[in-house]
Automatic annotation (TrEMBL):
GO terms for molecular function: transferase activity. This is Glycosyl transferase family A. It comes from the Bacteria. The keyword Transferase applies. Keywords: Transferase. The keyword Ribosomal protein does not apply. CDD domains: Glyco_tranf_GTA_type (cd00761). Residues 5-245 form the Glycosyltransferase 2-like prokaryotic type domain.
């Protein structure tokens, strides 16, 4: 049996699936099975997968049921000691599996390991850093405050962890990964690989409607998590809600164009400050405020052009990690 099961849910992923699979094939750690769950694709996803010659690749096709269910179907097929997930438009650096497996083996009591993330645009040309934190051990408090794992393509879990926690919540349309990590965190130790190994692709398409869905599901996850939280942690709820609004404001300012995006971001930042006034002192709030002021002063078009130039400069420095 392989040491690692890599689960890739794929729905109409023809534009990116080969690049994603290639990033797994390039791993310096080769003892893995690659399970692709074709979630009812109607494009060329299945045809492209059929062109791959790799005995480690296993493709299972089902009717479309959404990302959480696809991950659960992958778990049901997995035979590895360690299980990790990769969305069909994201990428890994070549040492992702090697370093995460080593981290779990070096800490037998740990149930999960995560790495740092770089966020890239649709074309994989512009990058900006995601969360680069190093929370280890009991991370339950930090997990309640925000999804510092940043992406469902990041974490690696022991099989025993998944057997204890169960499967992803298939009723969620977004944030199902954060919900899962919140269920892992109370009882399992986390370890970190302090290196950017996840290249998370953010699509700008229909982001306005996606933000509304994300907002609704964030609230569901936060409400559920704090209902279960011990009394000494319930006081963190407003801070968690504040962080949620900052995160969504960031998406508005980065991926939605026009004056309406600025207005939506302003409303979210106002809610964030009202819920947790100390958020005014945070670096993230200062950056978001700077971006918002740029849009209001220069116009959305000129501000976005300037911010893209800054992003390109970052990209030039970070291309070496791919």
């Amino acid at each position: 049996m392989p040491s690692v099961s890599v689960i890739v849910p794929a729905y109409n992923s023809g534009r990116t699936i080969l690049e994603t699979i290639a990033s797994v094939q390039r791993q310096t750690f080769s003892d893995f099975e690659l399970i692709v769950i074709n979630d009812g694709s109607t494009d060329k996803t299945l045809e492209l997968l059929g062109s791959i010659q790799d005995s480690r690749l296993k493709v299972f096709s089902y009717g479309n049921a959404g990302l959480p269910t696809a991950r659960n179907r992958g778990i049901a097929q997995a035979t590895g000691q360690f299980i990790t997930f990769l969305d069909a438009d994201d990428l890994w650096t070549p040492d992702k599996l090697e370093l995460q497996v080593a981290a779990l083996k070096n800490c037998p009591e740990a149930g999960a390991v995560y790495s740092w993330t770089l966020v890239m645009d649709e074309k994989g040309e512009n990058f900006h850093p995601g969360k680069s934190v190093s929370f280890e051990g009991n991370v339950y408090r930090e997990m309640l405050l925000s999804n510092f794992i940043a992406s469902g393509s990041n974490i690696m879990l022991r099989r025993e962890t998944i057997e204890a926690v169960g499967v992803f919540d298939s009723t969620l349309k977004s944030c199902e990964d954060w919900d899962y990590w919140l269920r892992v965190a109370p009882d399992w130790i986390f370890v970190v690989v302090p290196k950017s190994q996840i290249l998370y692709r953010q699509s700008s398409g229909a982001m306005s409607s996606k933000i509304d869905v994300m907002d609704k599901n964030h609230l569901i996850v936060i409400e559920k998590a704090f209902e279960k939280a011990p009394p000494d942690l319930k006081r963190l709820k407003n801070q968690s809600l504040s962080n949620k609004n900052q995160f969504l404001a960031q998406l508005c300012l980065t991926h939605v164009s026009g004056t309406e995006a600025a207005k939506q971001a302003f409303r979210m930042l106002y809610k964030s400050i009202k819920l947790y006034p100390k958020s005014l002192l945070s670096k993230s709030m200062r950056i978001l405020t700077f971006k918002l002021l740029l849009i209001l002063i220069l116009s959305p078009e000129r501000a976005n052009s300037l911010l893209k130039q800054i992003s390109r400069l970052r990209a030039a420095k970070r291309k070496a990690v791919i």
